[in-house]
Structures are given as structure tokens and as C-alpha cells.
Amino acid sequence: MKAITWAGPNRVACEEVPDPSIVNPRDAILKVTATTICGSDLHLYDGYIPAMQRGDVLGHEFIGEVVEVGPGARDSLAVGDRVCVSPMISCGACFFCKQDLYSLCDNGNPDAAIPEALWGQSPCGIFGYSHMTGGYAGSHAEYIRVPFADVGAKKVPEGIEDTKALFCSDAFATGYFAADLAGVKGGDVVAVWGAGAVGLFAMASARLMGAERVIAIDRFSDRLRLAREKAGATDTIDYEAVDVVEHLKEMTGGRGPDVCVDAVGMEAHHGGAQGAYDRTKQALRLESERPYVIREAIMACRKGGTISMAGVYGAFVDKFPLGALMNKALQLRTGQVHAQSYIPRLLEHVERGDVDPSFVATHEMSLDQAQQAYRTFKQKDDGCVRVVFRPAA
Amino acid sequence: MRPPIGSRLHGVLDYLTGTKLIGASFLPVLRGRFAGKVLRAAGASHIAYSLVTRYELGAVKLLPYKAHLGIDAAGALGLAAAPHLAGKDGLDRWVLVGVGAYELGAVLLSDPQGKGPGAGEPGWRAVTVEWPEAEVSAFLADPEQVSRFSPGGDWQGEFRLREAPGGRGTELHAKASADDLRRAKQLIEAGEVATAAGGPAGRRGPLSAVLPTKDTGAAAKGAGA
Fold first, then answer.
1. Of B168, B194, B200, the CB nearest to A109
2. Residues of chain B neighbouring A54 (CB-CB closer than 8 A)
3. pTM for the predicted model, two decimal places
4. A253 pLDDT more than 70
5. β-strands A259-262, A213-218: how paired?
6. Which band of pLDDT confidence, cut at 50, 70 and 90, is reported for residue B213?
């Protein structure tokens, strides 16, 4: 079958690879009907996540059709089912899964020793996301093996078309999770850094939860326009045009936003001296992240407010404003999305017409166009927000 | 008191130091200089022998940990001596003597037994599993299960069970490898051992043979897939 594989920093390839097969009783094999490149895939593409190997199949956000089911998953899945799959590979039976904290699953990562050395404990496994999270083959392929499919693959109700269901797998789930983590409630002012798919869905989700004002922060005018027109943002800030912290202060009557969402993560952009400082340190591998967004969010957030970290970080940062975090009594909520517990809820929202997630699907390409697809998405060329592949078509 | 750096932390420092020395050699002040070249070579060789060291973060476990520490010490002295032997002074000397002193310091603070502080009895590790004590006992007494979680036959059967506080299942303390314990927990809770086998990969690069990852091909074979 065809699959997109990592070929080194800034290089991907479309290769012929063997078909996947059932290994464990709770596995299923899916024909991938739609999959998309996630912003977090760019951290792999750019070479910032260690433990990538040439030949690793990329992709973790997908829907598909079940073509084979292991004996342990037959109670919940059957051949022919259309399913939306969690990027997180979780057992459903450990202490964490039982509390719906699926991304913290103890049993989903066969290479747990690597994150244990770096982070103390290991999170769950993730499809197509380096050997830190299990080395599982990803979804940018015609077929995929889904471990613990009885827990991770959720049936898509008829009538929800592929493109709408696809983003419930990760981008919508993560955006919704970010707003949910922060406990957004009626009347809140919510600022969201990053108007990529996750940020846009965090805005839409904050509105669903009753936020009165949603402020989108980005530098691309087409993304800010999407934020206003499709994601329910009431205000936008171009961070290259103004000082974000001062501007937010003024916009919120000096209080600062009640909730700040970081939907950017480790490869944020910043001009000026701060940008040069972190870029240099990161290039010399003296710092693994460029943490402008989380710095700004901490400085901007109102006293006693909540910061929700949906963007991905890998290791260490410098000049982290710990004093502001502590003295302003902020709450910092974090984590990879517990997608298994959100997907069914989001599919209901989509079915009811509360949100149509397909607005982020700006581009469609074939697996053969791997390099072009990744480059277009990374450069945000041609107004690109998300590229969708339909390998089974 | 036991020296504070255990073999796991030492391994983290090895890779960090190796990459930082290489990174530093590209700094404008060092680029093209004697010190820059020596640092780059030192960084690269440090990573190379770390990859073949017999410790947690070694990819191919060949070189004994004590021998690794010996190479560290010799390398540190070599770095400090290099500018003198090559007749360099000024910046070259300060940088290399400084890095040599740092490396020697790291060796002196490392526990030659590899344990570091906080290590309990040798080889004792623990996991918590979501099952009552009696069922965990029965699981561990079943030879078929033992062969599944300890395929290498390392399991000696030396363990203690303790009820976890707050109804959080059972703590399994055992003299066992981390991998055996992890697999036992996976089998108890999830009924199977998580693996990336059965998921294909494309053409591998030259480094893949030595990187510390699971070989999907070999694992798939064992499962009869």
C-alpha cells in the first residue's frame, strides 16, 4: 500500500510499504477514508521531536472503514463500520482510562522507557508520532492497524459526511478539550493564541460553552478572517502589528482575559530581540522550545484566571515567567486530548449542526503529493489551514 | 553518601553534553578554531560510545558502565591537556580546560554502581495494577502468563504485593526488569502487550539499526501475524 513516511527534517516521501496486519486480539484494521496533517506533525517534519526514524509512517488524525476486527474487539466493532479514531492509543482499563484521562494511559506506549527518562512517566501511545509514543505506524496510508480499537474507534452516525467527522478525531477534540479544561463559562472573555485548526475549534468551543467575547491572535489575515466568520471570534489581534499583552489589557478594561488558550506550542514565531534569543538557543539545542505564547499568555491572563495549554511542548524552556504564574494565582491546565471521551460528544454537536468542522479543510491532495502537501501546510501557502488526504478514494 | 548521579541521569547528561559540545563548536567565536574542532570531535565520540554503553539509554548494550566512566575521565583529562600539547593558549585553552573540568566533575559525581541516591534494594521496581491482590497473585503464579510478560525468562518470581491506598488496586513490587513489569501490568489490565508490530514502515535509514526502538518486523513474526 501507499504511505507517507518521514525521510529526515523537512522531507517526507510517498512510499510503497507492506499492508498492516492484526497482531493483538483487540486490534482492528481500517481502510483510511480521510486523514489530515496536524500542526503537531510539523514538529516531526521540522525535526524537533527526537526519536523519529526514516521510514516512519506519519499521521494521527483520521477516520476510516473497518475491514478486519480482532476477536477482542468484536463486541464493539464490525467489518464495514465507519469510525472516527482517537490519535491516542489507550487500553481503557488502567487507573487513568477509567477516569476518562485516556491520554495518560499506562498501557498504550510500548516504548515507555524513552518518555520515562525525559518526563518521569509516560503518556499513552500515539499513532505516527515518533518512537517516544510507541513508534506506531500512522494514518497517512491506505490502511492502518488500530490497537485497542474497541476503545479508540468510535462509530460515526450516518449522515455526517467524512470531512465533518474527520476533525472530531483530533483538531476539534483538542480545541474543545482546551476550552473544557479551562472551564469556560457564560460571560467569560477568552483569548486564543493561534488560529490554526485547533485554535479555531477552541474559539468555536468557547462560544458553545457560553463565552461572551473570544479574541483570536495570529499574524495571518486569512486565518483571522476565518476566526471571525466561521469560529465565532468577536475580536482579532494581529500580533505583528501590536503589543499583544498591552492590547489585551486595553480590550478587557485592564483586567486581562479570564481564559487564555495556547494553541501554538513549541514552535511559536516572534519578531524582535526575544525572537532572536530563542531562535539562537533552539538552533544550538540549548533550549528545545520557543515559548513566546505561553510567556505572553501568563503575562496577559487576568489574576486568578486559567491558562489552557493545547499546544505541544517537548522538553525545556528558558525565561518562563514563574513569578507571574505564582503571584497572579493562575491555573495552568495541560495535556494531550483525552480524545476517546470527546469524540462521541463532538459527533453529537456536528449532527445537531452546532458546529460544521469542515471549514478548516482548505486543501485536498493525494498521498503522492506528500512533499507538496507538507510544504503548503507548513508555509500556510494559498490560505492553507488543513490539507486532507482521502487514501481510500 | 552515594554519589548523586545514577546511570540513567548520567545517560541523559551524556547525550545532552554531546549535542551541546557539537552545537557550541558552531558558535561564531569557536568556529574554525582549534577548540571548536576538538569540541566537535569530543561531542561526536561521546554520543558514539554512549550509544554502545550497557546502561538504560544505551542502544546496543556492549560497553560496561564502569568502562564508560573510565573513558569519560580519560576524555576529560585529554580535553584539558589538548591545548597544552598542541601549543594553543588564550580562548582555546580556557574553553578546553573548562569543558574538561566539567566532564571530570560529572564523572566524580557519578555513582560507579550506576544506582544514584534513592535507589532502593538492588533491582526492586514497582508498578500499580487495577486488580485485587488475590487475582494478581494468581496471575503471577500462572506459568503461561509468566512466559508472556517475561519472554526472556528473567522473571525470578521474587515479589511483594501491597494494597494501594485509596482503593487504587495493588502495588506489585518485584525484583525484575522494567520491561517485564510493564508487560505484566499490560497483560493484567489490558489483556495484551502493546506493540507497534503489524504497522509497516518505509525504507529505513542507516541509523535505525542502532536506535533504541522496537523492531516492528521481529515482533510481528512472534505474533504469527
1. B194
2. 202-205, 207-208
3. 0.80
4. yes
5. unpaired
6. very low
